[in-house]
Predict the structure of ABC transporter permease.
Amino acid sequence: MARYLLRRLNLFLATALLMLGILFYATSLFPVEHSYALSGVRVPSLQQQAQIIEDYQLEQGELAQFIAYVQQRLGGNLGLSLTSQQPVANELASVLPASFELAIVAGLIALVLGIPLGVLASQSQHKLTQHCIMAITLTGYSIPVFWLGLLLSLWFGVRLGWLPISGQINLLYEIRPVSGFMLIDTLLSDSQYRWSAFKDVLLHLLLPAITLAVLPFTVVVRITRSAMMNVMNQTFIRAAEARGLKTSKIIVRHALPNALIPVLKHLGLMLGPFASYAIIVEMIFAWPGVGSWLISGIYQRDYTVIQGGILAVSLLIIFLNILIEVLHTVSNPLSRKELYAAN
């Protein structure tokens, strides 16, 4: 097991190094002075210029510059934002919690609704029920996320006026940031309006979370249905049925835990599309996360923000993908058998 974890760690480091190499090459193509694109310092003094040259080894060869670039970026020095002249690392830390909050809520919606529907689609004896569920998932998978977001905003935000369509919380509420997760911060606040603020955050979160949850929801339903149909035909399920166990008990205790293993594997495959969809959703609903921050940096040609945003999102996807792969291997008896056999 230790050898397997070491291989996964080496894979993460190699992939991260490749990503940094691509960013380093892309930085040299920016239509500005190289030192300016790396540091973000608009009008450096002689001392600052000398420090930038020393930090990034600009007077050395390409290899030395790349090593210095990797050291600076992995050391937390992402430079200054060209527009705000604030450290990119600080700005990134301020917008990451909002993206995590949106992604977690959307993921929970997809799992809580998708798994039961997948089980129902696999076990229902009514063809109409099965066809309706699969038609819903196919429709949800085919709808462009930007069109769905705009449609939900138009109906539930503009015409019906039920839900807010932009932002994270009403500006009338003054909530002191503690964890960065607005749902938690409202509950931790000592304001007398904290429950009203909590409700307001929930209302702001509904439309973007539902929009973002559509893609993983459709995938979870289809994978759960396929996995459940496969598991229910296994020998140990037939044996449990022969012993007279109730169907509901067989599904909950025996079939569903085994059917969730393929679902876990496919979660890792969805991370890339999920992150790209999250960026679009944040832009549509003006959600103050990494996606809208990164797109704003692209519009403003803020090259240090572009580098920092792409690096953070890429490393996060790589890390979570490898983490899900490790969890899948640990939870899957067949994978553990192959793992120990290889060792």
Observations:
- The chain is about 75% helix and 0% strand.
